[in-house]
Amino acid sequence: MSRNQRPKPGPNAADSPEEDKAGSAEPLSDTQAIMAALKRTEQCVLTKIDSTVTAAVGELHTKIDNLSRDLRSEIFNVRTEFTKVVEDVRKENATFVTRIEGLEEGANCYANRVVELEAKVTTLSSQVNKLVQNRRSRVSTTER
Predict the structure, then answer these.
(1) At the top level of its lineage, which domain of life is listed (predicted)?
(2) How far apart are CA 41 and CA 45, in angstroms?
């Protein structure tokens, strides 16, 4: 590049102080021109990096928000299903409790009947023994 040639201005060339020198009457040296071009390129690269990072951050925030919403929805669905299952188990449990109470009531009733029958068997057994003894006594008295 010759002394009189200037580098092409970058996107932010108007913001560069070197550009002000280029617009003045003094021509830029090759080193100054290269430095000005590097400065503009650096600004351009930094701007692009900044906009890329900003866009990536925005996308990440959106994805995090979507994942958070999906997770909340999934947790709600699991809670709803769990509540339904627990309610079904409670209903079944209530049915079993009712059936067990009925069985216990029936068992108590049969236990009371067994006690009564045992008492009758004991009484009848005692009466049978008395009758047998009376008969033996009579048979032995008549045989003599």
Answers:
(1) Eukaryota
(2) 6
